[in-house]
Design goal:
238 residues, alpha/beta, Rossmann fold, 2 domains, 6-stranded parallel sheet, two-stranded antiparallel sheet, 10 helices, 8 strands, 42% helix, disordered C terminus, phosphoglycolate phosphatase activity, hydrolase, HAD-SF_hydro_IA
């Protein structure tokens, strides 16, 4: 049961608000497999979904390594492969917003609800996505926070805490976190968010998201208009 009206929503990017056809995770799969492995895209999505990407590489590779030093060394090689190939992929990529994303952002902003984008990408990658969508910080959303802006990435709460500090939000109970992966939900819980929402448009299935015990699982962003009580709104409380 939602106890407080929501005054800040922190949205994940890829798989939640930004549809980039899983190019990041496909490139991540190619990167780890360039070392001679055969990880499936499903495994990469399950293990790496939502994480800072170097950490994702290490977590994907860790089951096949006994030597931590060799794991670290090979992970660095795979991560550099990932960065190099992702840059090329993004130059050609047609990036679109998920249906309802901009409508929901506008709906929230009209009610005085702050909109934050956060991501396990570094700032350069996240900024390239925002630019491809022709979104602008301060106009289409209030703040972008990336893994490279904080000391500890997901599931640590650092990105959400930073967003709250910058936007003057003192009570985590008035914050909602929305994401397409288990680690998004864990991040929101670690930050003490009053509402943690999983969405099925991206990395992980409804059943997988349910293992993190979110408050709500939705299939599209616009469902939030009917299922969440926002600041200064008359929407039905869940």
């Amino acid at each position: 049961m939602q106890k407080e009206k929501i005054s800040l929503v922190v949205f994940d990017m890829a798989g939640t608000t930004v549809n980039e056809d899983n190019v990041v995770y496909k490139t991540l799969r190619d990167a780890v497999n360039s070392l001679g492995h055969d990880f499936s895209l499903d495994t990469v999505l399950l293990v790496g979904g939502g994480k800072e990407k170097f950490q994702a590489v290490k977590d994907i590779l860790s089951p096949v390594y006994d030597d931590p030093g060799q794991l670290e060394a090979d992970a660095k090689v795979a991560f550099q492969y990932f960065l190099d190939h992702l840059k090329v992929a993004y130059e050609k990529l047609n990036v679109v917003a998920y249906a309802g994303a901009q409508e929901l952002f506008g709906y929230l902003q009209k009610r005085g609800v702050k909109v934050v984008l956060n991501t396990g990408y570094n700032r350069a990658t996240a900024t390239s996505l925002v630019q491809k969508l022709n979104w602008e910080e301060g106009r289409d959303f209030d703040l972008l926070v990336t893994a490279s802006d904080v000391s500890n990435s997901r599931p640590a709460p650092d990105m959400i805490v930073l967003a709250m500090e910058r936007l003057g939000i003192d009570e985590a109970e008035k914050v909602a976190k929305v994401g397409d992966s288990i680690i998004d939900i864990e991040e929101g819980k670690a930050a003490g968010c009053g509402l943690n929402i999983g969405i099925t448009t991206g990395a992980q299935t409804k059943d997988q998201l349910a293992t993190a015990n979110p408050d709500l699982i939705i299939d599209s962003l616009l469902e939030m208009k009917d299922q969440v009580k926002f600041k200064d709104s008359e929407l039905q409380q869940i």
